[in-house]
Amino acid sequence: MHKSINFIVGLFVVFAFICLGMVALRASTVEPMFQNQGYRLYARFDDISGLNVHAPIRIAGVKIGVVESIELLPKSYQAKVTMVIDTRFKNLPIDTSVSVATEGLLGSKYLEVTPGFDDGFIKSGGEITQTVSSISLEKLIGKLATSFVMEK
Amino acid sequence: MLNKYRSSEVKKPGPITLENVTFSRSGRKILDNISISIPSGKIIAIMGPSGTGKSTLMKLMTGELKPDVGSVMFNGKNIPDLSSRSLYEYRKEIGVMLQSNALFNELSVFENVAFPLREHFELKEDFLQSLVKLKLEKVGLRNACDLIPSELSGGMARRVSLARAIVRDPSIMFYDEPFTGQDPITRWVLLELIRRLHTTLNMTSVLVSHQVEMMTQLADVVYILSEGKIISSGTPKAVFKDKNPLVRKFVDGYSDGSKDMIHHPGQSLVEDLFK
Amino acid sequence: MKKIEAIGAKALNAIAGVGKGAWLVLNGFILFFNNKRNWQTLIHQISFAGIMSLPLIAMSAVFIGMVFTIQSYWVLESFGAASEVGLVLGLSVFRELGPVITALLYTGRVGSSITAELGLMKTSEQFASMELMSVDPISRIVGPRLVAMVITLPLLTMFFNWVALLGSAFVAGKLIGLDSGTFWSNLKNGILFYSDVLPGLFKSVIFGLIIASVSLYHGYFGDATPSGVAKNSTRTVVQGSMLVLIFDYILVALMR
Ligand SMILES: Nc1ncnc2c1ncn2[C@@H]1O[C@H](COP(=O)(O)OP(=O)(O)OP(=O)(O)O)[C@@H](O)[C@H]1O
Ligand SMILES: [Mg+2]
Asked: Which of B89, B94, B119 is the closest to C135 by Cβ?
């Protein structure tokens, strides 16, 4: 009798972890621990509105890393974004650029990296100098509206 | 306990001595400056009207309650002062049959009786089976071993509780009204059982009972408790002949039908109804 | 003056209660390991608290997943973002709905009955008779129930999370007619396991501890009378639920 209840309880525990496994496999991204297997780069932006810590970094739409931290530089009032990138993509040319992009029309923000053609590579801890800031839909609409008003 | 099965020589437990014990509950004194001693190896009966504090007195001896004043000495130690570990050590020596049976409602009769053995000893299953079955046989319930407490009659539950209390073969036994709910024949069988256990295991037995006739046969010493005080003590023969009117009221009350109800202390009926 | 005194007395009582509860839980946890027979009791308690709760949790998860999906679909559709419905549901379930609703159901289903069970044992002097047999009820009764409750609540939350998603996927795919590939890939891309799913489960461990403390406290220390037992079960449900919600806020504020 003890044996059968032990078995059922064991089954219950396994079952619960299978549920967790399904969530991990099908409904979420198990972030690799980039802190160990990644290297850091940073970039300065004029405007990163909508970008969050942990946002993905992509090349050609494929995830290569995550945003580790975002801070405001006290003198230039620029946003400094620290990125952790998978060591497999160690050799990014010096003229690589990075831009804040949006998933779909209204989706969340991520960083799109466009590799350059230079022969030199950015060192670990270095900076991606070419950046394109957020294009905010609100500002765009604002500009359009004012231009309409001006024309009248 | 297992040693007891191997060696024939059994150690006698020390006496229990209560000195100047006072105990109150919700501001009312239930035991008032009581001093009694439970000599080792004897059968002691505590008798008295309902609600005078017999069960309370027993709970003081088992360490379940602590007196407000006074001491309860056993083997040179004051039981109320014991650390919980030494209290548990003391309780391994004793067996208690509570007035409420306090059976574990989720366990079968068998498992209830086996409980103290399973908790304290690693016995082989077949040895445990025979120990428990023997005790259940003694109280006439071997064939009821698969029932659960809610399926038992009042008297049956009492006997399971008795079997559980004696299953560890303790050296001091406390029985709180062991005969309630039993038919006359069973009562005498249980009386014999208690006597036999007492002599074979050389134990000290403390009983609370209302059965004057049975206690005359069984007890070595009788204490009569009334309104928180010991009003008479000695051998059953002496006590039951005591001229003290309170003792007479209690002892004879049973033989010629109740005339005077012994009331819970408080105001009189007239005061209560017409004020 | 009298009123202020009464408030003071209540506050002191509450503080004493927390102290006694902490003492009970600490002892229950330590003494659990004192007796190896407790492991078998633990298995039985997990079966009672966990397996017996599965139908309730499953039903609630399915329906909450379904309702929440329809509701968020109506809102998201008006922004043209209907395909994000899975993501919205997933985030809310993993972070909040899963741990909190499972905990609230658990308080009602398991917490109250543990209080009643212990209360009954106390009224019928079962604790006293255990102590008379040199068996510590804190080790044998409180300990296994405490450990079982802390273990089973996170397990049930894992189960809730997945079942709620299945309910949502069913409504999104079969009733609303969204593409199921988009549904799942939005979930997968938008939700991070270590920062969205695991913190929720961590919260449910804390909730398990809270519910266990409250229910064992009211069972072990509560009034040992039939009406007292009934009142204490109610207290467990009320106080357990309140504390779960309060600690949810505190944990969320701390973890961010
Ligand atoms: N838990 C309690 N709280 C308050 N008073 C109690 C409690 N238990 C017992 N009493 C009171 O203590 C007194 C003695 O009770 P006790 O159980 O010792 O009586 P008793 O002599 O064993 O009676 P009986 O022969 O009916 O068993 C009673 O008057 C009872 O009202
Ligand atoms: Mg009594």
From this structure: B119
Question: Three-state SS across C126-192?
Answer: HHHHHHHCCCCHHHHHHHHHHHHHHHHHHHHHHHHHHHHHHHHHHHHHHHHCCCHHHHHHHHHHHCE
Any idea how long chain A is? 152
Same-domain pairing of A94 and A113: yes
DSSP state of A123: P
Q: Tell me if A28 sits within 8 A of C194, measured CB to CB.
A: no
List Cβ neighbours of A92 (8 Å cut-off, separation of 6 or more): A41, A85, A113, A115, A116, A121, A122, A128
pTM score of the predicted model: 0.82
Query: Is residue A26 within a helix (H) or strand (E), and if so which, with residue range?
Result: helix A2-26
**Ligand nearest, relative to CA of residue B54:** 1
Nearest chain A Cα distance for residue C225, angstroms: 33
C162 closest CB neighbour out of A23, A30, A105: A23
- Using CA atoms, how far apart are residues A98 and A107, in angstroms rounded to an integer? 18
Chain B contact present for C36, CB below 8 A: no
Q: How many domains does chain A have?
A: 2
Q: Is B115 on the interface with C (CB under 8 A)?
A: yes
Domain assignment present for A141: no
| Nearest of C18, C45, C11 to residue C152 by alpha carbon | C45
Category of B247 on φ-ψ map: left (φ > 0), alpha (ψ -120 to 50) or beta: alpha
Q: Which fold has domain B17-93+172-275?
A: Rossmann fold (3.40.50)
Provide the domain limits for residue A7: 1-30
Positive or negative, the CA dihedral C133, C139, C144, C146 is: positive
Tokens of B101: 């049976």
Looking at ligand 1, which residue's alpha carbon is closest to its atom 5? B25
CB A27 within 8 A of CB C184: yes
Domain-wise residue ranges, chain C: 2-255
Question: What does the pLDDT look like over C187-215, one tens digit per residue?
Answer: 887 888 988 999 999 999 999 999 999 99
For residue C160 the two structure tokens come to 């809730």
Cα–Cα distance measured from residue A5 to residue B198, given in angstroms and rounded to the nearest whole number: 42
Q: Give the model confidence (pLDDT) of C86-124 as tens digits.
A: 889 999 999 999 999 999 999 999 999 999 999 999 999
